[in-house]
Amino acid sequence: MKKDELNQYLLAKPESSLDFPFGADVSVFKVKGKMFALLGFHNDLPMLNLKCDPDEAVMLCDVFSA
Fold it and tell me: Are 15 and 31 in contact (CB under 8 A)?
């Protein structure tokens, strides 16, 4: 998925907004002022960090390697 597609998908969430508090190269997506996603790129590869429930995060780490 390309950067524009990821931005469009994340901004389509209800009440989402885009901010750059860590510099121009890291997109921070927020809902009602709370961060839910960070998007950056390294060697043209997307690095996406999403927030989720801690118990669900443990399960996802068991299922997926990255």
Answer: yes
What the block records as the tokens of 16 is 């989402």
Q: Count other Cβ atoms within 10 Å, centred on residue 31.
A: 15
Rounded CA gap, 47 and 38, in Å? 8
* Distance, CA of 50 to CA of 6 (rounded, Å): 12
Residue with tokens 């907004």: 17
Give pTM, 2 decimals. Answer: 0.79
Integer Cα distance of 29 and 50 in angstroms:
10
pLDDT tens profile 2-28: 788 889 999 999 999 999 999 999 999
Helix intervals (H) in the chain: 3-11, 54-63
